[in-house]
Amino acid sequence: MDFELPEDLRLLKQTVANFVDKELIPIERTSMDGPIMKPDVRARVEAKAKELGLWLLEVPTEYGGQGLGLLGMVVVWEEMARTIALPPRGPFVFGPDLRPILFTLTEEQKQKYLYPVLRGEKTTAFAQSEPDAGADPGSMRTTAVRKGDKYIINGYKRWITNAGTADFFQLVAATDRAKGSRGGLSMFLVDANTPGVKIVGRIETMMGDAPYEIAFDNVEIPAENLIGKEGDGMKSAQSWITSGRLYQACRGLGVAKRCLDMSASYAKQRVTFGAPLAERQAVQFMIADSYMEHHMTQLLVYQLAARTDAGVAARHESYMAKIKGTELGFRVADRCMQIHGGMGLANEMPIAKMWRDARSFMITEGPVELMRWVLARDILRQY
Questions:
Q1: In this structure, are 227 and 238 located in the same domain?
Q2: Element of type H or E holding 36
C-alpha cells in the first residue's frame, strides 16, 4: 500500500496551495459582498486560475476539461478550504459549478443544459431538500405526475444554494411516494423561468450565506426533461454522493490545516506571564492533538478517494470520511479560537468564520448522527 501522492498530484497540490496563499488569503476581508463573491474579484481570480491551468479540473476530457479523478479533486478541495475568500458552498473559481449527473444527460439535454454551463452561459442549482425531507429523502412531498407528454410538478424546496441566480434546477421529486427513496424518486431539469416556479424566500444563516426557498405550483415541463429513467433519482445520486461526502471531509481538512498553522504560529509569538503560550502544556496538547487528528483523517480521506477511483471502495467508507472530516474541522477551529483568546473572536481574523462554517458541515448533506447510525447498521451486518 502506497500512501504517497503521485508526482503529478503533489505538483497540483503545491500549485493550488500557492494560489490560495498568494491570490485568496490576502483578499479574505474584501472578496465577498454578503453571501456572494464580488464580480470584479471573481473575474480577476478566475483569470489567474486559467493562467495557471487550474480550470475545469474535474470536467471529463471529452468535454474540454482535465478529467481529474477523486484523489486529484480531494487535494484541490483540501487546499481551497484553507481560505474564507470564497463562498463556503461554491461556486469556486476553477470553472462552472457542476454535478456529475449533468454528464449523464442525453445529447439533446446536453445541448440545452450542460454545454451552456460549460461555456459560462448558464448556471444551475441542485434542488432536493425540503422542510420535512432533508436527511430523509424518502419522505419527500414534492411530486412530479406524468400527464401525456408532460410532468406536472407541485411542491416546495428549502436550503437551495445559488437558486436566486440559477437558470435551471436539477430537481428531485417523487414520482411514486409509496416507494420512497427505493424507486420512488426521479430527477428532472426545470428551467427557472417556467411558469409556476417562484422564489419565495431566503434564509439568513450564521455562516453568512442565504440559501433559497422555492415553490413549484402546477409547473409543467416536457417529459424529455426527465434525467435517466423514472424512479432512478436516488440511483443517479449515488454517482456523486461519495464525491459530496469527500468534499465535506476536505472542508474539514483544509480548515484544520489553516487553524493548526495559525495556532502554532500564535502560540510561539504570544507571551503571557513571562513565557510564550507554546510552553504551556495545555496549549501544547491542543496543538499535538490537532496535528495527529489531521494526519489520521487525511490518510482516511486520501485512501477513500483512491479506492473510489479504483472502483473498490465500500459504501460505509464515505460515512467515516464525512464524520471524521467535518468533526475535525470544527474541533480544530474551536481549539484555534481558544488559543487565540479574544483575538479568536475578532472578525478581522478568519477563525470565527471558519468555526461557523465548519460547524455547519456537521449538519448539511447528512448530519453526523445519521452517518453514524447508517455506519453502525452496515457494520452490524458483517457480524
A1: no
A2: strand 36-37
Same domain, 269 and 364: yes
| 3-class DSSP assignment, residue 171 | strand
Kindly list the catalytic residues. Answer: 365
My answer on whether 132 and 191 are in the same domain is: yes
Higher pLDDT, 280 or 4: 280
Give me Rg for the CA atoms of the chain: 22
Structure confidence by residue, pLDDT tens digits, 159-174: 999 999 999 999 999 9
| Rounded Cα distance, 143 and 75, in Å | 38
Pairing status of strand 168-174 against strand 124-127? parallel
pLDDT in tens, 136-192: 788 899 999 999 999 999 999 999 999 999 999 999 999 999 998 889 999 999 999
Structural contact between residues 154 and 175, judged by C-beta atoms closer than 8 angstroms: no
Q: How far is CA 370 from CA 122, 180, 333, 377, 383, in A?
A: 35, 18, 23, 11, 21
Alpha helices in 26-125 (DSSP H): 39-51, 70-80, 107-109, 115-118
Q: Are 110 and 64 in contact (CB under 8 A)?
A: no
Of 223, 200, 225, residue with least CA distance to 213? 200
Residue 114 lies in a domain: no
Dist. CA 266–CA 23, nearest whole Å = 23
Note whether 238 and 310 are same-domain residues.
yes
- Number of domains, the chain: 3
d(CA 262, CA 334): 12
239 shares its domain with 373: yes
Q: What is the DSSP letter of 110?
A: I
CATH of the domain at 289: 1.20.140.10
Q: Which residue has the cell 456529475?
A: 100
Query: What pTM, to 2 d.p., does this model score?
Result: 0.93
- Look up residue 5 and give its DSSP letter: P
For residue 68, the 8-state DSSP code is -
**H helical segments located in 1-69:** 7-19, 39-51
Angle, helix 233-269 to helix 70-80, in steps of 10 degrees: 40
Residue 335, number of CB atoms within 10 A of its CB: 22
**CATH number for the domain including 157?**
2.40.110.10
296's CB contacts (< 8 A; 6+ apart) are: 324
